[in-house]
Amino acid sequence: MSPPLLKLGAVLSTMAMISNWMSQTLPSLVGLNTTRITASDTLTQISPKEGWQVYSSAQDPDGRCICTVVAPEQNLCSRDAKSRQLRQLLEKVQNMSQSIEVLNLRTQRDFQYVLKMETQMKGLKAKFRQIEDDRKTLMTKHFQELKEKMDELLPLIPVLEQYKTDAKLITQFKEEIRNLSTVLTGIQEEIGAYDYEELHQRVVNLETRLRDCMKKLTCGKLMKITGPITVKISGTRFGAWMTDPLASEKNNRVWYMDSYTNNKIVREYKSIADFVSGAESRTYNLPFKWAGTNHVVYNGSLYFNKYQSNIIIKYSFDTGRVLAQRSLEYAGFHNVYPYTWGGFSDIDLMADEIGLWAVYATNQNAGNIVISQLNQDTLEVLQSWSTGYPKRSAGESFMICGTLYVTNSHLTGAKVYYSYSTKTSTYEYTDIPFHNQYFHISMLDYNARDRALYAWNNGHQVLFNVTLFHIIKTEDDT
Predict the structure, then answer these.
(1) Domain coordinates in residue numbering, the chain
(2) Where is each Olfactomedin-like domain found (predicted)?
(3) Does domain 220-470 fall into CATH 2.40.128.630?
(4) pLDDT single digits (tens) 60-86
C-alpha cells in the first residue's frame, strides 16, 4: 500500500479506537449504564471502595499516555455524604473534561489531515474525470492505475462524513461538560455556604445554651485544692498580695503589702508580669498602719483593719482618700483572737461571689468564729452568723460562694477541716488537703474572678487552684 494509503489506514484505526472509547466509556462516566469494562478493554474501571479508579486513558498530541485516576472513597461521616458525593461528581466531570480535551486535540490534528486528504481526493476525482473524458489519449496502463487508486479511496468518503459528525459531537460534549462543571461548582459553593451558616448558627445556639446554663449555676462547693504555683519570692515571712475580683479583664493590677504591722506602704503593679519582674507602677502611703495580713481589694478600694483597733478602713486607690471607716462591734483585736500563727490576725476581711465579708471572734461567742456580711460602701454589718469553731484554732480561712472554709493549721500538713454555709446556717467537717510547700502560711484568700487562692507562704507569693462542684438550679429554686 502506498504511503498516503498507510496514513489513511492509521486514520481509520484512530477513528475506530475513538468510536470504541466513546461507545463504551462515555456512557459509564456520565452514569448512562453500569456495564463493567473487562480487563481486555482499553479502560479499566474499579469500584471506588476497592481501590483507585481509572476513568480515561488517551494520548496527548505528542503521543504520551494520559491517564485520569481518582482516589478511592474514604470513610465519611453521614452528615457530609451529599456534599462529598457532589464533590466526587464534580471530580468525575472534571476528569471527563480533561480526557475529552486530549481527545479533541487528537481529533483536530487528525481532522486537519483528513481535510487535506479530502482536498486531494476531490482533486484526484476531478482529474480522473478529465482523464476519463480524454482516456483515448492516455495509455491504458496509467488509466488502470488511477482507476485502482480511486476505487481504494472511495470507501473513505462516508468515513470522512462520519468523522465530521464525531468531531461535532465531541465539540458538543465539551460545551455540555463545561456548562455542567460550572453548575456543579456553583451548587458546591452554595452548599458550602449553607453548611457554614448552619455551623455558625449551631455555634451561636450552643453559646446561648451555655450562657443560660452558667446563669443556672449555683455557687460551687469546694472539692479540691491543687498547686501551689510559685509566682515570686519576696518580702518578709508575713505579708499579703492580691488582685481585684471585680476588675475588668484588662485590669490585672496587683497590690503588695509586706509585713503584718508597722507599715503603711502599698505597692502597685500593672500586671502579674510586672509584679514578677519588680516593675512597680505606683505606691500608696496609707493614713493608718494596718494590723495583720488579712486585707482585701474589692471594686477599686482597699479594706484593712486599722492597727490596734477593731476599726475597718475603706481606702480608695483612685482618690487616695479614706471613703469609710467603722468599728466592728465586739470584735477582738491586737492578738486577742488571732489565727494560730498570731500576727494581729484577729480580723480577716475577704470577698467572694456574693460580696464583702469580715471573719473574727467575740467574747459573746466564746472566742468562736463570727461571720459578718458587710455593706461595701458604708461597712455596715448586714447580717452575722455565729459558728462553733474556735478562732485561735484556725490556721487561716476564706469564703467561696457564701461558705466559710477553715484550715486547721498554718504549718505543714494543714488541710481544710471545717466549713460553714451562710445560706443554710449549717456546718460540716471536711478533709481537703493542700500542699503547704514552704511550711508557713500567713495569708490565704479566694479570688472569685481567678477562681484561685492567693497565699503568702513564708516569703513566697503563691497561687492555689480550686475545684468547685456546681449544682444546676431548678425552676423550683428561689
Answers:
(1) 82-124+149-217, 220-470
(2) 218-470
(3) yes
(4) 555 555 444 444 444 444 445 566 667
